[in-house]
Amino acid sequence: MGEVIAIASQKGGVGKTTTAVNLSASLASLGQRVLLIDMDPQGSVAASFGFTRYDIKAGILDLFLSGVSLRDTIHPTGLFEHFEFIPTNLWSDDNERRKLVGISSKTKLKEELDSLKENYDFVVIDCPPSLGNLTFNALIAADSLIVPIQCEYYALKALGRFLKLTRIIKNENNPKLKYRGFLLTMVDSRSKLTKIVMEKIRYTLQGLVFETMIPRNVRLAEVPYHGQPVLGFDKHCKGATSYLGLAKEVLGEPRDATAVLQKQEELILA
Questions:
Q1: Which DSSP state fits 118?
Q2: What is the pLDDT of residues 55-85, one digit of tens each?
Q3: Residue 15 — left, alpha, or beta (φ > 0 → left; ψ -120 to 50 → alpha)?
Q4: In 30-94, which residue ranges form alpha helices assigned H by DSSP?
Q5: CATH number of 3-269: 3.30.70.100, 2.30.30.90, 3.40.50.300, 3.30.9.10?
Q6: What whole-number distance in Å separates Cα of residue 66 and Cα of residue 64?
Q7: What's the CA gap between 56 and 74, in Å, rounded?
Q8: pLDDT single digits (tens) 175-227
């Protein structure tokens, strides 16, 4: 049965969607059957595969509001036969619909995925940069969690609040939730400040940070322009090779980091 991995962070602009899209594509390139779900209202996942809102037959909104089966919202990425995605279809002008999504069941996604994930090796969920109902749905449905962290000083304070939330969800709603790890993103190896922050993050989250780091790379920003993940148009760039390395790390065992994270949470919030 497939593993559900949520890519989540309370902080925006840390590379969640970039990670969700390119990690999923890298896993698929290694022969894994992958389903990528876009829960972020910004809807960037569809653009990463060349889809516009007019190309989408149904999306995650229809699951919550119209009773459409999750199976009926799946679209082919066109990159690999065994690589599919579910778009968000939460458009910026759907304000009333967004309010309705806000009162939906927190277990709706899990209920649907339980009967679907056996068809995949991995289900990757791109979460919104918020602690709302869509994020709760994703974390309750997830088996494991990857948290992107941008290498800046404010990252650790935001991280502390997010760790507290995930501990509550684990204790009250999803005891099986484990951490795949914390991912350093937008790394500029030439910056002294970046190196200092990296050292602090690795010290604070001892043993829980992926060895793979994602560099600042202009090719990663070009994914929506090309309408395909970075390995589809420049598989030799640093961004592509980094996400391939991350995919290989993910194919290892998840980490049961509950006790460690409780201690680190206290340190971060202190």
A1: G
A2: 888 888 888 888 889 999 999 998 888 999 9
A3: left
A4: 44-47, 60-65
A5: 3.40.50.300
A6: 6
A7: 10
A8: 999 989 999 998 887 888 888 888 888 888 878 899 999 988 888 888 878 88
